[in-house]
Amino acid sequence: MKNNTVLIAVGLLIINVISCESNNKENRILPTDEIPPITTYKDSQIVADHNVVELYDDIPQRWIDSVKTKLVWIQGMSHGYGYFRGAELLEAIDNRFQVEIWYHTAEPEDVGNGLRLGRPLFGSESSWTRPAGIDATNKAIRNLYYKRNPYDFVWFGWSYQSTWQNGLTDRDPIYDVGWAGSTQSGPDGNLAWGLDAEDQVLTGNRVCMDTYLDAVEQFNQYCTANAIDTKYFFSNGVVDLNAGTELGFQRELKNQHIRNYISGRAGVTYFFDYADILIHNDKGEKYQVKWNDNGKIRLHDQIHPDNLSDNTGVEIGEGVMDDHVGDVGAVRLAKAMWWLLARASGWDGKSQ
After folding, report:
1. pLDDT, averaged across the chain
2. Portion of the chain with pLDDT greater than 90, in percent
3. Nearest Cα to 160, choosing from 136, 184, 137?
4. Distance of CA 192 to the CA centre of its chain
């Protein structure tokens, strides 16, 4: 397909209007019974996955103290709340990891109460499905910078965007699955979506996973061009519900597509692999389920049952909403998050 790219000016930066460009065809994988994982990343790719969960305890105190000065905005909906609850639970378990949650309110200034973690309001995928959403995010980042209370780190806390609101399309000839999901405020409306531009034939939708990846690149390019220190992290989607179904299988293809992109990306990259953290339990065991595709058994990743438990040994009361994971899973997210924030703050992951 032709490149449907339009250039627009935002301040001093020229950015690409969000479109599904076929720039990741080498990342496509052939259908197999089990979706192969990415096992290696370059040293410049700082990835918080299940391998780093217990490394939170290795963070030197000076880097814990550094993270405590940071302001973090996690865009999202109910699943995004899991980051906040997990951080509060981790503080109750280990009071070195102090956190100040700001939830649907103005961004707090640093007064020494801990990592400032939260969001000003609910945020859907419209922050990256359309040019206006990208511009609004950039404006919010710019405004905080000029108020001398800048965001240090931002990322999108996925919800069910990969699976809900629109049913499965006809099957993709490469992956032998249909595509589903939502693209609120997208240029073609709220439709199912796939991995790249070639999937528009099936979905009728210019939005795809490459749209999200391109949007993250644009956020970081904007900050660099305007000398703003904010870093925007890559992240991936959820792994609860839709177990043993075509919806669950195509969801995993989308999560894997992000890993493939990160693995091949040049330069320093920060990636929070939400899915990988939750499909493994504290013993390092990976959980998969079987989809019976008309007699053919096809495996896909699913949240580990252990991560649906609330048995953490601490009690902080009910949360303000359901984050769709148990407290055990939320604590795993928090541990990996602290590790990634320490790395993004300057810790090399080794030295004291």
Report:
1. 90
2. 86
3. 184
4. 19
